[in-house]
Design a protein that fits this description.
4-stranded mixed beta sheet; DCC_oxidoreductase; Thiol-disulfide oxidoreductase
């Protein structure tokens, strides 16, 4: 299997001001042995272009896992399915989370939505999206990508 290039590497869209989401991104960075998963805030130009290609995402405030971004093969997964995509991507012991696939997606997504409503109370909220440290900055899609 070939390593994804920067242009077709998967991208995780996340709430850039959410403390829980930023903590999750830091965890993913720590365990991403391939070092190819990229990240973009939901309010970035990159994310807006993804949403324009998938209009049903417009009213969602959720994590989005994007495979083959910008290509004719582009696919998106949201909510619990996106989290399972991340677990699958990370591999190793993270694959244990894939056992959650036995839970019906509607139930998983209700649980996801319930947590999402309290995520700012649990993990706090930033005024602006934090700037990633220099050693991983290249993994974050610029707001002025293109």
């Amino acid at each position: 299997m070939s390593t994804p290039t920067e242009s077709n590497a998967p991208v995780l869209l996340y709430d850039g001001v959410c403390g829980v989401c930023n903590g999750a991104v830091r965890t993913i960075l720590r365990f991403d042995s391939r070092g190819t998963l990229r990240f973009a805030a939901l309010d970035s130009d990159f994310a807006r272009d993804i949403i324009a290609r998938h209009p049903y995402l417009a009213d969602l405030d959720t994590v989005v896992f994007v495979r083959d971004p910008g290509s004719s093969r582009e696919t998106v997964s949201t909510q619990s399915a996106a989290l399972l995509q991340v677990a699958d991507y990370l591999g190793g012991f993270w694959k244990l989370a894939l056992a959650a696939r036995v839970i019906p997606p509607a139930v998983r997504d209700r649980l996801y939505a319930a947590f999402a409503t309290v995520r700012y109370r649990v993990g706090g909220q930033y005024d602006t999206c934090p700037i990633p440290p220099p050693e991983v900055r290249s993994r974050f899609v610029d707001a002025t990508y293109g």
